[in-house]
Design goal:
Shape: globular
Oligomer: single chain
Number of strands: 9
Strand content: 15-25%
CATH topology: Rossmann fold
Radius of gyration: 17 Å
Largest sheet: 7 strands, parallel
Strand order of the largest sheet: 3-2-1-4-5-6-9
CATH superfamily: NAD(P)-binding Rossmann-like Domain
Distance between the termini: 29 Å
Number of helices: 6
Helix content: 25-40%
CATH class: Alpha Beta
Number of domains: 1
Length: about 220
């Protein structure tokens, strides 16, 4: 039976790869994208719903699908105000999970971050950890939280610091082996494929997928150890 999916963050780096993969996947008949701005994509499967993502609860009537993918995220440089930052990185994913529970959507995949920890003194890491815990508390049957390291790939906007970081990761990636492998930079396309594999096969015994396991899951959903 063919499925439908919802994407939040389809205009971002990972979200754009995810959208392309799902639109080209014969197992899906409809892809809904909730976005604050228009997408330059036209496809017979695609339904675009323009809305304020900070008021996503207002879209409950339209928030219906078999699977939900959350690729929302910002940066300190882009959103220096901590309140606004938390509204995006915590508020949107958690509201999404609430809508999944209310509308009985049993599968959600969310991009978190390497090192996410609610007890961290680092605001970014702490916010991601609190987001993860809040989503897990929703008890959605198939919940996948992916923790990638530096996300690699071409972005539409130029981020000087991130560009330098990617250059460094490109050089040191081959040196990160064994227990250090999870710190390797990982391409957005790999993350997108991993999310689809997880939601497709629903190996719900694996809730949190660390960066080094994302590589394996992108090839096969069962390669999580």
């Amino acid at each position: 039976m063919k499925k439908s999916a919802i994407i939040l963050g389809a205009s971002g780096l990972t979200g754009s790869y995810l959208l392309e993969e799902l639109l080209n996947n014969v197992n899906y008949y409809k892809i809904k994208v909730f976005t604050r701005s228009p997408l330059e994509v036209i496809h017979e499967k695609l339904e675009i719903i323009e809305c304020d993502l900070l008021k996503l609860e207002e879209q409950k009537e339209h928030f219906k699908a078999d699977e939900v993918y959350v690729c929302i995220g910002t940066t300190n440089s882009k959103t220096p105000n901590k309140k606004s930052y938390r509204e995006i990185d915590f508020g949107i994913p958690v509201t999404t999970a609430q809508l999944c529970r209310e509308n009985q959507i049993d599968t959600i995949a969310v991009i978190s971050s390497l090192g996410a920890n609610s007890k961290s003194s680092v605001f970014y890491i702490k916010t991601k950890g609190e987001m993860e815990e809040s989503i897990i508390e929703m008890e959605i049957p198939n919940t996948y939280l992916l923790r990638p390291a530096m996300i690699m790939g071409p972005r539409k906007e130029r981020r000087v610091g991130e560009t330098i970081g990617k250059m460094i990761f490109f050089m040191i990636n081959p040196l990160l082996v064994g227990s250090l492998k999870k710190y390797r930079g990982i391409h957005a396309e790999v993350i997108a494929k991993a999310m689809i594999n997880l939601c497709g096969e629903k190996p719900d015994e694996k809730k949190i997928i660390e960066s080094d396991k994302i590589w394996k899951v992108s090839e096969s959903p069962y390669q999580t150890t």
